[in-house]
Amino acid sequence: MAAPKKLYIKTYGCQMNVYDSERMAEAMAGAGYVETATPEGADMVLLNTCHIREKAAEKVYSELGRIRKLADAKRAAGDRMLVGVAGCVAQAEGEEIVRRQPLVDIVVGPQAFHRLPEMAARAVAGGGAVIDTDFPEDDKFAAPRPKARRAPAAFLTVQEGCDKFCAFCVVPYTRGAEISRPAAKVLAEARDLVARGVVEITLLGQNVNAWRGEAPDGAGRWGLGRLIRELAEIDGLKRIRYTTSHPNDMDEDLIAAHGEVDALMPYLHLPVQSGSDRVLKAMNRRHTASAYLQLIERIRAARPDLALSGDFIVGFPGETEAEFEETMALVREANYAQAYSFKYSPRPGTPAADLPMVDPDEASERLQRLQALLGAQQAAFQESCVGRTLPVLLEKPGRRAGQMIGRSPYLQAVHMHADANLAGRIVEVDIVGAGPNSLKGRLAA
Ligand code: 5AD
Ligand code: SF4
């Protein structure tokens, strides 16, 4: 039997890419590839790219420059390294990638990952780079998944694309229009995951709460609240999460589910981006600051211990100091357990890209102030958990011997001494300490 080939995948960006990388690794396993942790000596290197951050494409080109050296070394040893670029930069750049870096054998967009083995075979056969950035008719999700036992927490992509067209964002261009997978397919994939030991599923989508999937009987469509209720009926599925959401797609049923479905975890990532109505309008967010705050109030009425997370952009073109202060005021009122904040940077092709920028020093200074406030809120939330007993899903061994790492219902990492055999179990843990990004616990008696 031939020795397995080594596949190295580097994943950038969001959890959707983590899911896609997993599916690509599974697809390539069928072609005799096993994953390896480093690119050195790999038979295939795949960069699964993200386009949301600044200079995303440039970073991919410089990474490819580094990989070129490894590929040269491999060739000098009489062997070949296949190099592929996947994900949103592949989608956005297409053939340009091969023009700028002829090393690249495969360019595959996020909609075509299931075709990777066939593309790799064609690349090996020769005849130049193989490029597929189509939005194909066949269903990439339909590819069979191997039956190995899995980690206790898994991602499940239910929705892709975005129709919102926020003025700063590339997603509607790179990931295309919103598509919802049918409920029956999502439920079948979830049951299959649970049968293989998964107890927590995070439903993924660029705009996941806009999911409107065909109902199993073909009659009409379900919303995400209904889907979550059905998932909660699966025996053995103990935790459900979803990310990421737009405020305008939080419907009544989904809000109610937060109060009614025990398995739905009390954590919500609901980006607002800005607290200024003028800026929100310029961003094409299509909601006001007070509408967002009222929405949070309604969700907290359903689930009082909800831990709120969000995304913020400071220094959007035209943002004044007073408008930035409105963002600070919204943060004080909403109170975040966790958040991501970014300085605006233009993405070519988006409506905001041509607008005059805020002074960069001014924007950096605002970002610092916002991050100080968000950091203080996060620290307060972490601290508030000390003394509580929380159910923790044990996921993997920690760095020190005898240590395990798990997740609280609020998505906090929790470190404790526990037997590795407990992986996959949800255990009661006394929280005895808090750091900025993790908690320390002891197994409860
Ligand atoms: N500049 C800065 N941040 C951005 N994001 C998206 N596009 C931009 C941009 N052009 C942030 C938003 C989004 C998160 C995933 O990335 O806050 O919610
Ligand atoms: Fe981008 Fe999110 Fe706005 Fe969609 S809703 S355009 S993914 S920021």
What is the fold's blueprint, element by element?
Blueprint: E1 5-11, H1 15-29, E2 33-35, E3 44-49, H2 56-76, E4 82-86, H3 87-93, H4 96-100, E5 106-108, H5 116-125, E6 130-132, E7 153-157, E8 159-160, H6 171-174, E9 179-180, H7 183-195, E10 200-204, E11 212-214, E12 221-223, H8 224-232, E13 239-243, H9 252-260, E14 267-269, H10 277-282, H11 289-302, E15 307-314, H12 321-334, E16 338-343, H13 360-384, E17 389-397, E18 403-407, E19 413-417, E20 426-434, E21 438-443
Parallel strand pairs: 1-2, 1-3, 3-4, 4-5, 5-6, 7-10, 10-13, 14-15, 15-16, 19-21
Antiparallel strand pairs: 8-9, 11-12, 17-18, 17-20, 18-19, 20-21
The structure holds 5'-deoxyadenosine and iron/sulfur cluster.
* CATH topology type of the largest domain: Rossmann fold
The major pleated sheet works out as: 6 strands, parallel
Q: Provide the number of structural domains.
A: 4
**Percentage of residues in DSSP E strands:** 15-25%
The second-level CATH architecture of the largest domain is: 3-Layer(aba) Sandwich
- Put simply, the count of helices is 13
List ligands, each type once: 5'-deoxyadenosine, iron/sulfur cluster
* Derived structural class: alpha/beta
Main location: cytoplasm
Family: Belongs to the methylthiotransferase family. MiaB subfamily.
Protein name: tRNA-2-methylthio-N(6)-dimethylallyladenosine synthase
Enzyme class: transferase
